[in-house]
Amino acid sequence: GQQLNQSPQSMFIQEGEDVSMNCTSSSIFNTWLWYKQDPGEGPVLLIALYKAGELTSNGRLTAQFGITRKDSFLNISASIPSDVGIYFCAGQLRSGGSNYKLTFGKGTLLTVNP
Amino acid sequence: DAGVTQSPTHLIKTRGQQVTLRCSPKSGHDTVSWYQQALGQGPQFIFQYYEEEERQRGNFPDRFSGHQFPNYSSELNVNALLLGDSALYLCASSLDRAGYGYTFGSGTRLTVV
């Protein structure tokens, strides 16, 4: 099945560093979502973006909806050990206000060295 | 407030067998979607149920079927299991037309031997 192109595949950083990851698609989406998944758990929603060009923050996390509607990025500032996990982008094509399927990237594995 | 509940948490089946996985959506949610997540991959959409009907389906064979009950809970059935069906199966619920993303359960880890 289709998956979005998410990069980098993995990152190993020092605590306190900033992190950036991005996601691209050959298809247009009208919603972009960023999720975090911890081992043995389901993905948890971090940020949702609904408009091209939109920039949204959630604490130390900032995400942007690309102007072409085919890409998005997520930044994490001043990383801490609990940021460790797998980050997924997901695109959604919502129609008529209804929530339809999510198309996910393969994920970015983030490791933070204390 | 209970989130999305899935059962069982782990399951081991033999090739050719059939399996049923269950999902109770978050309180107030009316839409249930199922995803398959293979090791090292992102979740892949299987299908979505709304008003007890399959509304949208991903690229999965007919061996994968589902059901939604009047209380919005859902089942995923997989027949004639293959080794390649081994994966984490995630259920996600949402309130249709709410304008925000899904809430995921912790998943059922299915191993086919």
| Overall number of strands of chain B | 11
Question: How far is the N terminus from the C terminus of chain A?
Answer: 37 Å
As residue ranges, the low-confidence spans of chain B are none
Summarize the biggest pleated sheet of chain A: 6 strands, mixed
- What is the arithmetic mean of pLDDT of chain A? 92
Biggest sheet features of chain B: 7 strands, mixed
What would you call the shape of chain B?
globular
Order of helices and strands of chain B: EEEEEEEEEEE
Rg measurement of chain A, Å: 14 Å
The best one-word shape of chain A is globular
Q: Strand-and-helix sequence of chain A, N→C? A: EEEEEEEEEEE
Q: Give the number of helices of chain B.
A: 0
Structure description:
The complex is a heterodimer of chains A (114) and B (113). Chain A is an all-beta fold. Chain A has no helices and 11 strands. Chain A is globular and about 45 Å long. The mean pLDDT of chain A is 92. With 113 residues, chain B is mainly beta. In chain B, 0% of the residues lie in helices and 50% in strands. At the A-B interface, strand 4, strand 5, strand 9 and strand 10 of A face strand 4, strand 5, strand 9 and strand 10 of B.
Short description:
Chain A has strands at residues 5-7, 10-14, 19-24, 31-37, 44-49, 55-58, 61-65, 71-76, 85-92, 102-104, 108-113. Chain A is mostly beta strands and 114 residues long.
Keywords for this entry:
heterodimer; A: 114 residues; mainly beta; six-stranded mixed sheet; five-stranded antiparallel sheet; 11 strands; 52% strand; globular; B: 113 residues; seven-stranded mixed sheet; four-stranded antiparallel sheet; 0% helix
